[in-house]
Amino acid sequence: MTASLNRVPCTVVTGFLGAGKTTMIRHLLENANGRRLALIVNEFGDVGIDGEILKGCGVEACPEENIIELANGCLCCTVADDFVPALDRILGLEPKVDHIIIETSGLALPKPLVQAFQWPTVKSRVTVDGVVAVVDGPALAAGQVASDMDALAAQRAADDTLDHDDPVEEVFEDQVACADLVILSKSDLMDAADTVRANGLIDAHLARAVKVVPSAHGRVDPSVLLGLGLSVEDDIDNRKTHHDDELDHEHDDFDSFIVELPAVASPDELARRVAAAAERENVLRMKGFVAVDGKPMRLLLQAVGARVNHYYDRAWTPADDRRSRLVVIGLKGLDRAKIEKILLG
Fold first, then answer.
1. Which of 16, 45, 177, 253 could form a disulfide with 167 if both were Cys (CB 3.0 to 4.6 A apart)?
2. Counting beta carbons within 10 angstroms of the beta carbon of residue 265, is it exposed (0 to 12), middle (13 to 18) or buried (19 or more)?
3. SS in 3 state form for the chain?
4. Taking CA 147 as the corner, what is the angle to CA 258 and CA 11, rounded to the nearest 5 degrees?
5. What pTM value is reported for the model?
């Protein structure tokens, strides 16, 4: 491995939509154990929801100026345009940062991003300490990400409607294939049988000896996540993924758009409409900030399929754009008009 004494270590956190990356990173920032951290957040869509959540932490280890949001598309597709300038900005901070966390969007493939660390102008300054994949335990246990390729091939043979690979599966498989550590999130929501099923799906795509760590509420000891010292950029070409033979890749199999809503009277009623839209129109993910009538607090809503969570994260400030906006993400062909009609009630 290349010596990295003078290079800043970077941890790449990847994972499927709604797997719990932001929750885990927030816990990491709040328990940095003296490290001065910086964070690059790659939001899919043009509303920086995850960045806003993390900026709201207010933790000394990672002040707001150490958090950079990249909202111009998938980071693995825009490395030269977005990632390198962000890296330049972070490396110019004073006092110097000890470690950089990179949270990719749910649709990002880690391999092209890590390969950028091989570029001479990048490699001389930073190194990839490790790639951490966060996977949604209950979703896997319920078969919501069908990552067993043998079973998928059998299913395709029996059903003419499944004559192509699901792009969501490919993203999941590529993320696990590149991981040095897999975090099995929401472990408190699984029983023993669920855990066995979820681990079985993960193991099917681990070509190397990679540990799977269960986690509840994003609580993972920083000593488990940081300081791996693996210089992953020196090994990434040996990690085989679906896109190795492609010169480039796009995520044309996904749609993303923003729905603006008036202030709502009832968060629970909005959550019901969000769940209904997910069930009827095959929405993968929704997230955003919502204004509630008569409430000075900002409502944060996040949904994975029909599972909806919401809570008040902080008070609105005069600087905020006090509008209700939800980012909607799903497979290509989403019917925007129908989704908007359901959400607007």
1. 253
2. exposed
3. CCCCCCCEEEEEEEECCCCCHHHHHHHHHHCCCCCCEEEEEECCCCCCHHHHHHHCCCCCCCCHHHEEEECCCCHHHCHHHHHHHHHHHHHCCCCCCCEEEEECCCCCCHHHHHHHHHCHHHHCCEEEEEEEEEEEHHHHHCCCCCCCHHHHHHHHHHCCCCCCCCHHHHHHHHHHHCCCEEEEECHHHCCHHHHHHHHHHHHCCCCCCCEEEECCCCCCCHHHHCCCCCCHHHCHHHCCCCCCCCCCCCCCCEEEEEEEECCECCHHHHHHHHHHHHHHHCEEEEEEEECECCCCEEEEEEEECCEEEEEEEEECCCCCCCCEEEEEEEECCCCHHHHHHHHHC
4. 65
5. 0.64
In single-letter form, the type of residue at position 226 comes to: L
Cα separation, 123 vs 319, in Å, equals 38
Closest CA to 236 of 78, 128, 96, 328: 128
Spatial separation of the C-alpha atoms in residues 262 and 257, rounded to whole Å:
17
Tokens 């204004």 belong to 291
Phi/psi for 27 (5° steps) reads -65, -40
Span 101-112, average pLDDT: 81
Domain ranges for the chain:
8-238, 254-344
Mean pLDDT of the chain: 78
Topology of domain 8-238 in CATH is: Rossmann fold (3.40.50)
Mean pLDDT for the stretch of residues 331-335: 80
254-344 — its CATH code? 3.30.1220.10
Quote the tokens at residue 127.
Answer: 């190194």
pLDDT digits (tens, 9 = 90+) for 44-56: 443 444 555 555 5
Per the omega criterion (within 30 degrees of 0), is the bond before 95 cis?
yes
Angstrom distance (rounded) from CA 138 to CA 194? 7
Hey, do 8-238 and 254-344 end up sharing a CATH topology, with the first three levels equal?
no
